[in-house]
Amino acid sequence: MAKKAKSVALLIESSNSYSRGMLQGIAAYMHENEQWSIRLPEQERDAPPPPWLKDWKGDGIIARIENEQIADALRNTKVPVVDVSAARRLPRVPWVEIDEAGIAEAAFNHLRERGFENLAFCGEARFKWSELRQGAFVERAAQEGFACHVFKPPAPIRGRVSLDREGKAIAKWLKSLPRPTALLACYDLKARQILDICWEIDIKVPEDLALLGVDNDEVLCDLATPPLSSVIPAAKKIGFAAAHSLDCLMKGEELEQHCRLIGPIGVATRQSTDILAIEDPDVAAALRFIRDHHSEQINVQDVMGVIPVSRRSLEVRFRKTVGRTIYQEIVRRRIDRICQLLNGSKLSLAQIAQRTGFESEEYMSVAFRRAKGMPPGRYRKSQF
Fold it and tell me: Where in this chain does the record put each HTH araC/xylS-type domain (predicted)?
C-alpha cells in the first residue's frame, strides 16, 4: 500500500519576490526528499488566516506569523509549525529568518566600498523586520564611526498615514540630506517609492543619492530608471531550512536549532549605486580596477600598473580612505565572490577557484579558511 503523503499548509504570500523564493526553497526540499500534499492559499502580506484553516486536518504548517490573527489561529494548533517571520509573535514556535546583521553588513560594505560617508535608511514602521534592519544598519555604521540619517514617518491620523502624506514627508527628508548620500531602503518596493520621489524633486540617482534596496526583485529593480541595486537575501535557503525543520518535527525528531538566521547571498549591483563617491581620483581608480578585475589573478603590482603614482603614496592614501590595504581589498573582493558562488550556485570548489582568481582549489581553500575560519565546503553546508 502506497504511503500517504503528508499534508502541509503554507501560509506564505506569493505576491512578492522574497516569499516566492522561500516557496521555491520548500519545493526544492520536497524534490530532494518526499513529496508533500501542499495547501497554498492565494494571499497578500499581512493577510488574515484563510477560513478553511480552522477545520483543516493536516500534518504541519510553515507560516509567516506577522499579525495577531495568524498567531491566534496557530497558537493552540495540534500540528507542528515553523515560522518564517521576524515578528516573533509565537516565541515557542521554531523559526527560520533573514539575518538582519548580515543584510546590514552587506549593504554597509557595498556603500562604503564606493566611498560614501553620508549614510541614510528609510523603512516601514509597520514591519518588525524593517525595524530590525534599520537597527542593524545604524549599528554597523556606528561601529565604523559613521552617523546614519533615519527617516521618521509622520504621526498617524486616525490610526494610519496616507501615501500622499508619507510621500511629502520623505521628499522633505530627502532634500535635507547632505550630498552625496548613500541610502538603504528597507526593501525594493520602498526603494522604488524613493526613486519616484527623487524624480519629482530633481535629486539625481546615483550622483546625488545612491539608492540600495533589499530582496533583489528583478522585475522591480530592472524596470526602475535607473535600475536598482539590491541586497540578495537567501530566500530559497530559508525556505529549504524551514521545510527541513518542519519535516523533522513531523517525524517526531528533535531540532538541532530552534532558531536559525540565514545571511544574504550578496548584492546585485545596478546603476543606482554604480558610482564612486571618493574625492581622491587615484584611490577611486584603484578601487574601480580591483572591482572590475579581482577575479583575474591580479596582484598589487597590477593595480600599480594603471595608477601613475608611487606605490607607497597610493598605499597610504588607499588605506586612509578605504580602511584596508590594496592587497586586503583584492582578497576581500575574492572572498565575497566565493561566498556568493557557494551560496547561489552548485559549482564545484575547483570551478569556483577558477572563477575567483585562484591558481588552484587548494590555494582558494587556504585563503578562505584564513578569512572565514572554516573551509569552503563546510561553509557551503552551513548555509543549508
Answer: 284-382
